[in-house]
Amino acid sequence: MATLIPVILSGGSGTRLWPLSTTHKPKQFHALGGDLSLFQETLDRLPETFDTKNLLVVANAKQRFLIAQQCEHVLGHVPAIALEPQGRNTAPAAVVAALYAREIDPDALLLILPADHLIRDLAEFHTVLEHARKQAVQGHPATFGIVPTAPETGYGYIEKGAAVGEGGKAFGIKAFKEKPDQKTAETYFSSGNFYWNSGMFLFPAKRFLSDIGEHAPEMLKAATAAWQNAEREHDFIWLDEKSFTACPSDSIDYAVMERISDGVVVPSDIGWSDVGAWNALWEALDKSAGDNVHTGPIHAVDTERTIIHSDGHFVAAVGVKDVVIVATEHAVLVMDQSRAQEVKDVVAHLKDTDQLHLVDGPEADD
Amino acid sequence: MATLIPVILSGGSGTRLWPLSTTHKPKQFHALGGDLSLFQETLDRLPETFDTKNLLVVANAKQRFLIAQQCEHVLGHVPAIALEPQGRNTAPAAVVAALYAREIDPDALLLILPADHLIRDLAEFHTVLEHARKQAVQGHPATFGIVPTAPETGYGYIEKGAAVGEGGKAFGIKAFKEKPDQKTAETYFSSGNFYWNSGMFLFPAKRFLSDIGEHAPEMLKAATAAWQNAEREHDFIWLDEKSFTACPSDSIDYAVMERISDGVVVPSDIGWSDVGAWNALWEALDKSAGDNVHTGPIHAVDTERTIIHSDGHFVAAVGVKDVVIVATEHAVLVMDQSRAQEVKDVVAHLKDTDQLHLVDGPEADD
User: Fold this and answer.
1) By three-state DSSP, how is residue B23 classified?
2) Is the CB of A319 less than 8 angstroms away from the CB of B325?
3) Predicted local confidence at residue A166, as pLDDT
4) Distance of residue A196 Cα from the nearest chain B Cα, in angstroms
5) Which of B73, B103, B33, B91 is nearest to B254 (CA)?
6) Does pLDDT of A128 surpass 90?
7) How many pairs of residues across A and B have Cβ atoms under 8 Å apart?
8) Do B332 and A350 touch (CB under 8 A)?
9) Which residues of A touch B313 (CB under 8 A)?
10) Distance between A284 CA and the closest CA of chain B, angstroms
11) Is B176's pLDDT higher than 70?
12) In whole angstroms, what is the distance from residue B53 CA to residue A30 CA?
């Protein structure tokens, strides 16, 4: 059997989860509703068929020690960590991962996973991984389409085509769709033909490199140079700065999946959330009485549909409803849940007014 | 003219302004809407006829340095500060003040002021002080009745009797009334015959001592012993612990004003607030656009009728209305304005659950 290589892409900044998520410690490195961080949960939920000895993490160089420490805590070892001098979206990172995988096994299959998602149905996640693996070995690069639970406007969508194989386990891809407006989202949702684009993929490394070579030859060239000229320091692989910075920025969807005719989407009903903003976190987590989600030292009286997260500061809440309250070492956010998308405007304001220390947060120490 | 002796009673704990107000630094020592603390504003608004060289502060012994420092900042000197080993309500403190005043001038008039009130109309305050002074020298112990602006249930009331002198500047006192229920408060308010009981008084020291001797002889005896056996250390007058602790606890209203027939109430329309709770503070202060009152490093987007107070922590607020947000070094409070009275329940909960450090707050350093 082809070697299964798990690849975690950890480039997200998680701006909309400020003030918890900061430059020094973005969203994926925080525990949200559990003991492990989102990044650690991503490692922890890999099935045994994906040997974490072969794991590659692609990440921001500044977060390398945080990643090494969080990996060691969950895995008992530090995996290979490829360090990007600058973010170039997901496709160049996937090229690096494919080059890495090819060194282990020329027929390796890559499982590409974002580091900052919640997946609540572990068994079903393992089931859809196996569906995708079967498609990939038959020559169908696979993406995972989340079965939508609401007409969300915050996600891209994948329109399915004809069934591939039996049992509705995979479909051809008719089109990738940008984040829709409300009306379009409702059409998508009611049709039953659309999935949320999860940003997770499973495909043969070799096939991906040949697709990139065909559809994005400059990217292949630049990312290959960055890999070949990388400096290795223990488990850290410092991608060559000049080459990687010169690499075009693009997503796996745009650079490859949209341009090939034999990709498939695997419908995935796995309790997924991208935890993109505070209201999404509230929706994703188990609620206590009053539909509250409270984490940290909190005394709440008569609160309803609140999410309260404290890093350590004591928070008292009385008679408030539908609010988000976040207290960290450096800042406090109080917001109506319906305004959760506006956190990015607050962060932009802080940058514009030279209050960058509030965006960067304290130096991470774990 | 009889010497006018200002006396500041600083025994309040300001529990309902937690987490700003703490055991180590209660409400009166915080600046609320200005540069000076409520205590300092109380000193600062005294008219020149009240020489602050003769000032006496009666306070909790634990707060003596805070008081000394805040006095020096406003007055340029540290006044006499009588230290209570335990609170015994206002009447014993007034006995101590009367004994102190008698040493300066046997005919001295005492002006008794709580340390934790806001008064916005300085000119009118000085005017009513003069009305009260005239009554006091004619043998009428005077209290100040705040002209009510709403049927408040949170204050005691004074029912006025017949006019004393001309021009409606003073009235006899028909009755003192406890905090009423809503219906009763509305009756009081619409009648025009009731004032809020401010807890401010102006009377001759000698007369007060003779009234106390008649109506509360044990209190006179115990408080006199506490004064006579006090230990003096610089400006601090340590009232004798054994005597003062044995002193009955009572208010000036109950112990004297209710029991004499010639007391008067001076109607006072002076922009007064006792700032008893966060919503009272919101009502008392000038509001910015959106009817907000914001103090500290705050970024507010689309907030209405909010009071946000930060000691230094950055606070971002988005789309919230009618809330109180308070961020201090040790705790965060987020509360619907209508629930402002329940802060005392939060504080009680903290005491019950051995989280006294959150009630005490950090050690005061100014």
Assistant:
1) coil
2) no
3) 84
4) 28
5) B91
6) yes
7) 108
8) no
9) 330-332
10) 22
11) yes
12) 59
Residues of chain B with CATH 3.90.550.10: 4-273
* CATH superfamily of this structure's domain A4-273: Spore Coat Polysaccharide Biosynthesis Protein SpsA; Chain A (3.90.550.10)
Rounding to the nearest 10 degrees, give the CA dihedral for residues B251, B255, B256, B259. 130
Instruction: Single out the residue of B21, B22, B23, B26 nearest to residue B10, CA to CA.
Output: B26
- Provide the 10 A C-beta neighbour count for residue B187: 13
Confirm if B48 and B204 have CB atoms less than 8 A apart.
no
Residues of chain B contacting residue A334, judged by C-beta atoms under 8 Å apart: 315-318, 320, 323, 325, 334
CB contact at 8 A, B27 and B275: yes
- Asked casually if ipTM beats, i.e. exceeds, 0.90, the reply is no
Contact call for B331 and A316, based on CB within 8 A: yes
CB contact under 8 A, B339 and A302: yes
Mean pLDDT of chain A: 95
Task: Give tens-digit pLDDT for A253-302.
Answer: 999 999 999 999 999 999 999 999 999 999 989 999 999 999 999 999 99
Q: Write down the pLDDT at residue B365.
A: 58
Yes or no, beta carbons of B325 and A318 under 8 Å apart: no
What is the structure's pLDDT at A364?
Answer: 63
Query: Measuring CA to CA, which residue among B69, B68, B57, B71 is closest to residue B10?
Result: B57
- What is the average per-residue pLDDT within B163-176? 94
Helix axes A217-228, A90-104, angle to 10 degrees: 60
Please give the pLDDT value at position A365: 58
Stretch A309-326: mean pLDDT? 96
